[in-house]
Amino acid sequence: DVVMTQSPLSLPVTLGQPASISCRSSQSLVHSDGNTYLNWFQQRPGQSPRRLIYKVSNRDSGVPERFSGSGSGTDFTLKISRVEAEDVGIYYCMQGTDWYTFGQGTKLEIK
Amino acid sequence: QVQLQESGPGLVEPSETLSLTCAVSGFSISSGFYWGWIRQPPGKGLEWVGSIHYSGMNYNTPSLKSRVTISVDTSKNQFSLKVTSVTAADTAVYYCARHVGAEGGRTFDHWGQGTLVTVSS
């Protein structure tokens, strides 16, 4: 299994400040077709997960521009340029290159 | 707008079979894509359980493979999950989701609201 490791697991952030979440995979996520299937999800309290980013850096429709994804190989990052109150929740990375596995989640809270 | 809704018993006895159904609206299952199940034990992270194509082709996570069956009913635009010989470790919120292919990132782009299944006597 591809193991996805996120850090930090807890992320207190002041409103208006940036936030960054790291996700590392136990093996390269470059698929044989040349694509890298690394995705990011947001799960607000009491809600289902919502996809934010797919294939490393593609933002889903309706996702604010303050969310961005980057990375390659085994090392990936989700950045929020200026945290807002509605961003509180748990963020998961997920790989779709070799079956499908999720990171443990990073809980973002307002400081 | 694609919408998914899980349904099924919220309580299952140990060693019995967990059965859930996901009704899809706003999109025909026969139009394509795979359709998947993901679960989340209370207070824990997400685990992919398995996925199925409208043609019936399906695949499951290796750790659960022998206990999981996923089926599809295109006439009702729904798909189902069965997990046999359940234990307390199968207690979780079960989500159904649309599972997109390479173009969409080989991931899950629309999710149901989830349903809690508790395994207990």
- Count the E strands of chain B: 11
Q: Please state the overall shape of chain B, judged from the principal axes of the Cα atoms.
A: globular
State the total count of DSSP E strands of chain A. 11
Helix content of chain B: under 10%
Computed over alpha carbons, the radius of gyration of chain B is: 14 Å
Oligomeric state of the chains? heterodimer
Secondary-structure content class of chain A: mainly beta
Structure description:
The complex is a heterodimer of chains A (111) and B (121). Chain A has no helices and eleven strands. Chain A has strands at 4-7, 10-13, 19-25, 38-43, 50-54, 58-59, 67-72, 75-80, 89-95, 101-102, 106-110. Chain A is globular, with a radius of gyration of 13 Å. The mean pLDDT of chain A is 97. With 121 residues, chain B is an all-beta fold. Chain B contains no helices and eleven strands. In chain B, strand 9 and strand 10 (108-111) form a beta hairpin. Chain B is globular and about 40 Å long. Chain A binds chain B through residues 1, 31, 33, 35, 37, 39, 41, 48-51, 54-55, 58, 60, 92, 94, 96-97, 99-105, and chain B through 38, 45-48, 61-62, 95, 102, 104-109, 111-114.
Brief write-up:
The complex is a heterodimer of chains A (111) and B (121). Chain A has 111 residues and is mostly beta strands. Helix content of chain A is 0%, strand content 49%.
What is the element layout, followed by pairings?
The complex is a heterodimer of chains A (111) and B (121).
Chain A (H helix, E strand, L loop, with lengths): L3 E4 L2 E4 L5 E7 L12 E6 L6 E5 L3 E2 L7 E6 L2 E6 L8 E7 L5 E2 L3 E5 L1
Parallel strand pairs in A: 2-11
Antiparallel strand pairs in A: 1-3, 3-8, 4-5, 4-9, 5-6, 7-8, 9-10, 9-11
Chain B lengths: L2 E5 L3 E2 L5 E8 L8 E7 L6 E7 L4 E3 L7 E6 L4 E6 L8 E8 L8 E4 L3 E5 L2
Parallel strand pairs in B: 2-11
Antiparallel strand pairs in B: 1-3, 3-8, 4-5, 4-9, 5-6, 7-8, 9-10, 9-11
